């Protein structure tokens, strides 16, 4: 029996929440795992087909990220990796800062868990996903939905906190037609930070959590500032300043880099969302960059399994 895993896009960091805060968005990748029943050792053990957005760029051999996560799960529980047919349907742009790699990791682990008889609980799947991704800000909301804050405990396990998100706070994303790898975005970051910058981010993250809960415009406008990653990454995103000015003039509370970028995320209210969407897209086009812009409500379900 096939198992279908639907995983939402995510936006990570949200300004001052670098590597610890993320939210699930209403845009999805779907992964169907169908067991292959082999009769001989020479039978095929892996089939992958990919459809949808930029499907031709996704690997269809054992190096496929979803399959690597699938394999990793079985290695962790000490069972042989079963032969499988994997069908992938893509809606989330690749390498744009919307968590496409997190969907593959989460789907591979979740699909493997179902085919293995679901021996692991969500917390165990989450720890495995964080281990593979390297940080929690994308995989945690991709798995659980909503907005989530992750903090490591003294024993290296994870405390996951749901962050209330007021329905009047509306995410708008502008996705340009160029890519920015996470590795490149991390290379530009300094190895040490000034104490004043650390204090600045701690204060603004606290204010952001309250702003998301209350939709208080002044708190959100102030809270979205950051000194840890965005000042260094802005130079990697042509047109950043023009898009930011356009978003603010159209009524956004503020604008941040989504994940490692280059997608830009504005937070606004429902009344201004359409104007912000149009303004961000046009601002990029005015500097010669083709872009798509979307109003994407928060996804509250996270990963959905259908067997």
Automatic annotation (TrEMBL):
<dbReference type="InterPro" id="IPR000870">
    <property type="entry name" value="Homoserine_kinase"/>
</dbReference>
<dbReference type="Pfam" id="PF08544">
    <property type="entry name" value="GHMP_kinases_C"/>
</dbReference>
<dbReference type="GO" id="GO:0009088">
    <property type="term" value="P:threonine biosynthetic process"/>
</dbReference>
<keyword id="KW-0547">Nucleotide-binding</keyword>
<keyword id="KW-0963">Cytoplasm</keyword>
<dbReference type="InterPro" id="IPR013750">
    <property type="entry name" value="GHMP_kinase_C_dom"/>
</dbReference>
<comment type="function">
    <text>Catalyzes the ATP-dependent phosphorylation of L-homoserine to L-homoserine phosphate.</text>
</comment>
<feature type="binding site">
    <location>
        <begin position="93"/>
        <end position="103"/>
    </location>
    <ligand>
        <name>ATP</name>
    </ligand>
</feature>
<dbReference type="InterPro" id="IPR014721">
    <property type="entry name" value="Ribsml_uS5_D2-typ_fold_subgr"/>
</dbReference>
<dbReference type="GO" id="GO:0005737">
    <property type="term" value="C:cytoplasm"/>
</dbReference>
<protein>
    <recommendedName>
        <fullName>Homoserine kinase</fullName>
        <ecNumber>2.7.1.39</ecNumber>
    </recommendedName>
</protein>
<feature type="domain" description="GHMP kinase C-terminal">
    <location>
        <begin position="219"/>
        <end position="285"/>
    </location>
</feature>
<dbReference type="InterPro" id="IPR020568">
    <property type="entry name" value="Ribosomal_Su5_D2-typ_SF"/>
</dbReference>
<keyword id="KW-0791">Threonine biosynthesis</keyword>
<dbReference type="InterPro" id="IPR006203">
    <property type="entry name" value="GHMP_knse_ATP-bd_CS"/>
</dbReference>
<feature type="domain" description="GHMP kinase N-terminal">
    <location>
        <begin position="64"/>
        <end position="146"/>
    </location>
</feature>
<dbReference type="GO" id="GO:0004413">
    <property type="term" value="F:homoserine kinase activity"/>
</dbReference>
<dbReference type="InterPro" id="IPR036554">
    <property type="entry name" value="GHMP_kinase_C_sf"/>
</dbReference>
<comment type="similarity">
    <text>Belongs to the GHMP kinase family. Homoserine kinase subfamily.</text>
</comment>
<comment type="pathway">
    <text>Amino-acid biosynthesis; L-threonine biosynthesis; L-threonine from L-aspartate: step 4/5.</text>
</comment>
<keyword id="KW-0028">Amino-acid biosynthesis</keyword>
<keyword id="KW-0418">Kinase</keyword>
<dbReference type="Pfam" id="PF00288">
    <property type="entry name" value="GHMP_kinases_N"/>
</dbReference>
<keyword id="KW-0067">ATP-binding</keyword>
<keyword id="KW-0808">Transferase</keyword>
<dbReference type="InterPro" id="IPR006204">
    <property type="entry name" value="GHMP_kinase_N_dom"/>
</dbReference>
<dbReference type="GO" id="GO:0005524">
    <property type="term" value="F:ATP binding"/>
</dbReference>
């Amino acid at each position: 029996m096939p198992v279908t895993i639907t995983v939402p896009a995510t936006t990570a960091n949200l300004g001052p929440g670098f590597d610890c805060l993320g939210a699930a968005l209403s845009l999805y990748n779907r992964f169907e795992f169908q067991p292959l029943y082999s009769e001989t050792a020479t039978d095929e053990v892996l089939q992958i087909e990919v459809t949808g957005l930029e499907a031709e760029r996704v690997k269809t051999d054992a190096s496929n990220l979803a399959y690597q996560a699938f394999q990793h799960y079985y290695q962790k529980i000490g069972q042989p990796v079963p032969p499988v047919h994997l069908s992938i349907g893509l809606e989330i742009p690749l390498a744009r800062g919307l968590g496409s790699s997190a969907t593959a990791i989460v789907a591979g682990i979740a699909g493997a868990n179902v085919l293995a008889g679901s021996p692991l609980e969500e917390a165990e799947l989450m720890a495995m996903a964080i281990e593979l991704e390297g940080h929690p800000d994308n995989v945690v909301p991709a798995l659980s939905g909503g907005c989530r804050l992750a903090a490591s405990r003294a024993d290296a396990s994870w405390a996951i906190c749901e962050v209330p998100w007021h329905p009047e706070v509306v995410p708008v994303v502008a996705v340009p037609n160029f890519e920015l790898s996470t590795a490149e975005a991390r290379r530009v970051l300094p190895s040490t930070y000034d104490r004043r910058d650390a204090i600045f981010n701690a204060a603004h993250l606290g204010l952001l959590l309250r702003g998301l809960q209350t939709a208080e415009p002044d708190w959100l406008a102030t809270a979205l500032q950051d000194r840890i990653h965005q000042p260094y990454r802005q130079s990697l995103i042509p047109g950043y300043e023009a898009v930011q000015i356009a978003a603010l003039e159209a009524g956004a509370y503020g604008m941040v880099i989504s994940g490692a970028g280059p997608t830009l995320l504005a937070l606004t209210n429902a009344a201004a969302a359409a104007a912000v969407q149009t303004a961000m897209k046009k601002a990029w086009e005015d500097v010669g960059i083709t872009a798509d812009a979307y109003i994407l409500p928060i996804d509250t379900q996270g990963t959905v399994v259908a067997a």
